[in-house]
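discrete fold record:
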Amino acid sequence: MSFQGLWPWLAGAAHAVVTIVVAGHVILHKRDVRAAIGWCALILFSPYVGALAYYFFGINRIQRRAARLVALRPELDEGALAPAGSSTLPTLLDEELGRLSSTVGRATGSQLLPGNAVSTLVNGDEAYPAMVEAIARAERSVLLTTYIFDDDRAGRLFVEALSDAALRGVEVRVLVDSVGKRYSRPHITRALRARNVRTAEFLPSRVPFRNPYVNMRNHRKLLIVDCETGFAGGLNIREGCLLEQPSAHPVQDLHFRFVGPIVDQMFSAAHQDWYFTTGELLGGPAWHSGTNPTGDVWARGLPDGPDEDFETILWTILAAVGAARRSIRIATPYFLPDLPTLTALRLAAYRGVDVDIILPEKNNLRIVGWASQAQLWQVLEPGCRVWLVPPPFDHSKVVVVDGVWCLVGSANWDARSLRLNFEYNVECYDEALAAELLHLTGGKMEQGRRLSLEEVEARPLPIRLRDGVARLFAPYL
């Protein structure tokens, strides 16, 4: 047989070998059955293309390097443990919330810490000045990790503050996600390095352009100053978050300032990210922790990622929804919960719990908005209320349960946040903080409109088909 007649057989054999090897990797390593089935189908029916797509987007390369962290975990976690006797909640909490605290502690391995003060910062107009001022007052150290850090009016405020801190001898470290830095040009890392600010990029992406759907991104937003004051929440660093100034893409959001023992846990998470990326351990007097109780909030840091902290925030959400007896208030920009989470919300509504879900009326990621619409009937049918907030785009991420329990941070209600990216949330127990968040989210509900089941079902057939097709990609959005 000539080579011309032989090469189709060789190509077919090569495809069979590649398919078996790559599909075998999928079967052994993918935890979610739906994701495994989807990848196997793509690999089988898209010769070579499916295998290449899996190589670039489907393999969790984090676990291969995470072993470096395990041996150093005690040193990296130094100062992040709770003081003796801190695991008992105050008597004001009812039995259900007490069980919730215990459940989350066992599920996540993170300590609940008393004595914290938490301040809510609305939009970049309140958050950025507070963060820049904290950097300006820094005496020993500044550690910043963020997803998007644009080279614009907002970004340059931080560059100036970070550069000034470094010039006066403060130890400054900045970690920017490799994909997140590409939301603006020139990249902010160039300006930071030009000003002698120690800067690193988290997991450089093989895709040479910005892609919000690339996996394994560091979506955390953490700023720790002198290991005494911490900031966390949903805010990226970009001028669109400054709503008092005109911008092309305005975004409303919430951020939070923390003082107290919880800052030790925040530093531990950011420190691990920095070490993972650079191999540098942050030690010595500049990075010494030892915060003292300063407030009444009990708080617990919840690092989450596709490695050893897998699905900790999802478990926390499921536990909280299951513990709710009176009310659940959710604000999120991206609402694509998996079936167990949808079931938990439906059961809460059937128990008589008031469930309010606050979403942006117009999503900034069109396909995510379509997929979300395709699922909303499942929460509307049992009596959950869905509220649509008009522009500017609402990027807020808040959960409040029974007027006491709060969850704030960077995670959205979708697979990308809860399974594929690195996130950081903080669980808080405090009636005053819960009341403030209920007031803020209540204002969003008043500005928006309530979506009815009838409106969702009345969408034209082509729109429902479009949304339904988008929903098929929900595990990857």
In short: Residues 64-71, 79-87 have pLDDT under 50 and may be disordered. The radius of gyration is 23 Å. The longest strand covers residues 113-122. The CA atoms of residues 345 and 362 lie 23 Å apart.
